[in-house]
Write a structure and sequence with these properties.
This protein is α+β, with helices and mostly antiparallel strands. It has 3 domains: 10-89, Roll (SH3 type barrels); 99-200, Immunoglobulin-like (Sandwich); 208-388, Aminopeptidase (3-Layer(aba) Sandwich), CATH 3.40.630. Helices cover 18% and strands 36% of the residues. It has a 7-stranded antiparallel sheet with strand order 5-4-8-7-6-3-9, with no helix packed on it. Strands 10, 11, 14, 15, 18 and 19 form a 6-stranded mixed sheet that branches.
């Protein structure tokens, strides 16, 4: 659904014949939990297509308005949309014609590699994952290079090469080449005006007994999710039953498991993301049950947002189909909130369709819950074995 633009970019002229038209815009900074940019005004049940999550206190130039979002100018030729809830006006913010990058440092500590980039100001950014070869690209909007040296220390373990290019006069692109084909996640944030890219290393031992897994049971509390077509069962109850079986199966493999919920608890997406980030898992599995307006549609599907995280979802789907479930697909660029963080690989599993009688019958069976858990664990192990061999 396209939202109309009622106002904000005010144009005026003192005398159209003698004075140039001037643009009036609003300045401020990002605020609140997990602010994010959207590409445009498209919308569906998952919201608009997200460009990136941002840190707080990043300077923002607003040039137009919709009902719920501001249109923001990132660079001369690039725009995005920011929720009004995530913007705090600040007239002291003066947007400069350009901002400079300064020196860099690349180093590692006991657990992570870091790329630190000094900037004149906290500027908006976006990240892109690439594969074959494995790379992280960071576009910093409004930045012009004044970087004349990049210091890389031997303490880095996962980062292979780091370099930049000025793709446009006011877009500065950082390229981070990784040593391993599988991406294990990265975080972006500011310390002062220094942009930090924290890169997770591949675990030294790729066995579940050495890994931490976050398991999310979809919905819960006030959010019942979908309902069953014949029995009217609530999605939230059965995602929890399956998630608990998955927890048991993972612990049987000696994995460390973090559950976002273990009872019928109301949790917002922001709360779930913040909880999971605090736990810093090696990867996330989120359990859901699907639904459709057509009762003939059935089957299993797995979902990912970023291409670097796709392999986990492929291996789990392949194993899940051994349960005799029809393939609904492996679905990418999925705009689900829990798929949005880049901090760890993640897989959303839509086990089967509550809106289909055959699938609902399976979902009602406790033996099926255990089988689903076992197949997900087998898919995870297949994925880890594939990573070992790359």
């Amino acid at each position: 659904m396209v939202r109309q633009l009622p106002f904000i970019c005010l144009l005026y002229s003192v005398s159209a014949a003698t004075q140039p038209v001037q643009n009036i815009f609003l300045t401020g900074k990002t605020t609140g939990p997990l602010p994010y940019l959207e590409y445009g005004l498209g919308d569906d049940r998952l919201g608009g297509a997200k460009m990136t999550y941002l840190d707080t206190n990043i300077i923002i130039k607003v040039v137009d308005s919709t009902k719920d979002d501001y249109k923001v100018q990132l660079s001369k030729n690039h725009f995005a949309y920011l929720s009004k809830r995530s913007f705090k006006a600040d007239s002291s913010v003066i947007i400069q014609p350009y901002y400079l990058t300064n020196s860099w440092k690349i180093y590692g500590d006991e657990r992570y590699d870091y790329v630190t980039i000094s900037l004149d100001e906290r500027l908006p950014y976006r990240s892109i994952q690439q594969i074959n070869p494995s790379k992280i690209l960071i576009d910093i909007f409004g930045a012009t290079s004044n970087t004349n040296w990049i210091t890389q220390l031997s303490t880095v373990k996962e980062i292979k090469n780091v370099y930049y290019e000025q793709t446009e006069d006011d877009i500065f692109r950082v390229s981070i080449e990784l040593k391993h084909a599988q991406q294990w996640g990265y975080s972006l944030y500011y310390e002062g005006n220094k942009l930090i890219i924290k890169v997770k290393r591949q675990p030294a031992i790729l066995e579940l007994k050495k890994l931490k897994v976050a398991v999310d049971a979809g919905h819960g509390g006030d959010n019942s999710g979908a309902g069953g077509i014949a029995r009217g069962i609530a999605e939230k109850n059965y995602t929890l039953l399956i998630a608990k079986e998955l927890e048991k199966a993972l612990k049987k493999q000696k994995a460390t498991v973090y559950m976002t919920r273990e009872k019928d608890t109301t949790l917002s997406m922001i709360e779930r993301i913040e909880m999971i980030k605090m736990q810093d898992p090696d990867f996330l599995i989120s359990i859901h049950l699907n639904s459709s307006g057509k009762d003939t549609i059935k089957g299993v599907s797995t979902y990912y947002r970023y291409i670097g995280f796709r392999p986990l979802t492929q291996f789990i789907l392949k194993r899940m189909m051994q349960l005799g479930l029809k393939e609904f697909g492996n679905i990418g660029s999925f705009n689900f909130s829990l798929s949005g963080p880049t901090d760890y690989p993640n897989c959303l599993v839509e086990v089967a369709f509550l809106s289909n009688k055959d699938d609902e019958k399976k979902i009602l069976n406790p033996k099926f819950h255990k089988q689903v858990a076992e197949k997900i664990v087998s898919g995870i192990k297949d994925w880890l074995n594939s990573v070992k061999n790359n």
